[in-house]
Design a protein that fits this description.
Layout lengths: L1 E6 L4 E10 L6 E11 L1 H4 L7 H23 L11 H10 L6 H12 L6 E7 L3 H18 L3 E5 H9 L13 E6 L4 E6 L6 E5 L5 H11 L6 H14 L23 H11 L6 H30 L3 E5 L6 H8 L11 E3 L3 H4 L4 H9 L8 H4 L2 H5 L4
Parallel strand pairs: 1-4, 4-5, 6-9, 9-10
Antiparallel strand pairs: 1-2, 2-3, 6-7, 7-8
Helix pairs in contact: 2-5, 3-4, 3-5, 6-13, 7-8, 7-9, 7-10, 8-10, 10-11
The protein binds 5'-O-[(R)-(carboxyoxy)(hydroxy)phosphoryl]adenosine and zinc ion.
Amino acid sequence: MILLSIETSCDETAISILEITGDFPKATYTILGNSLFSQVDIHRDYGGVFPALAKREHIATILPMLERALGESGLKNLPTNPLTAKEKNQIYELLKREGQLAEQLIKFYETNGRQPINVIAVTSGPGLEPALWVGVNFAQALGVLWQTPIIPVDHMEGHILSSIFDGEKLADLAFPAVALLVSGGHTELILMRDWKQYEKIGKTRDDAVGEAFDKVARLLGLPYPGGPQISQLAEGARDANLPPYTDLPTPMLRSPDFDFSFSGLKTAVRYAVAGKNLTDKEKQALARDFEDATITVLTHKLKKAVEEFNVQSVIVGGGVSANSSLRQAVNSLTLPTLYPDLKVYLPDIKLSTDNSIMIALAGHANLDDSLLTTATHKKIVADGNRSL
Ligand code: KG4
Ligand code: ZN
């Protein structure tokens, strides 16, 4: 089967086309087409993602992304009937808040014809609502054009599955597994006793880790998104073996639960820089101190979960899983002195931040249960805008 997936939950507009043989979780996935446009350059001036602007950019780039993914895929058109007046009206109705998109999409259909897509998966949440709606409405419009069912996808499930994806297959996961999800909007520990069973055992009580990276970067005068910038500075401090700049807290390290808190850490950084003009070396040291404090808490709670639930596999996903020190820290859980039998899964760097391959995987995982009729599509975002 051919599955097309759409991701627009934040500031990436992404569309992929995958050929899938076999059933989840043993299927083989072939990526036929994969397009992604990142809006980071546009949001940088605002110091973060600006929802109305994100929506505008998704509207402007979603059709070019579809064209690119379809072009890469080399799929051949199906016999195409002209659109009926009713279908055209449906498209206009579905995309009435998306400016010229309805008209452009109809023209695209009339030029390119029906595409041999069997099912469309689209991120329905969590994310920025104006941004999510563009993807969901666009998916529904495509569903009308191609007479294709739609699967709403939880973005976080996508992050989990992309972390165990080797480019072709999902890992043969040993359970119980625990997933640490660290992104710009989420910090969660999810216990999986089996495929598709997600039990949230811990979460941040305030800021997400990625958000803390971004805010600390801002305090150091670095542009959005701050995670990679902080990471680079911290590497510099480690290479030069710089002494600590300050003593930062490790919030909730000893709390008896699996929750996190990062806003106090960010505030401690704010106090550490207030009224000072840091040298480059001091910035590097502080970035390293912040990264170390964050990773200490994350790995401590991971270890606690591994022990408490006799965890066999650890999965780390979300944008912050691109961080090299975090990757190293998580990988070292398998040291002989710790848990040598534990399996650790980290996403390919390209799949750690938002993309549509992850949405295709989660769409396929939910193929049986959630094929929707157009009538229920309206509710997708309202129901789907939840976290795992
Ligand atoms: O998963 P993601 O792409 O989007 C959300 O769903 O939020 O995560 C984006 C977050 C941003 O906060 C960004 O600063 C952070 O991931 N990030 C990193 C790194 N690369 C991206 N944080 C730390 N180190 C990195 N190398
Ligand atoms: Zn994400």
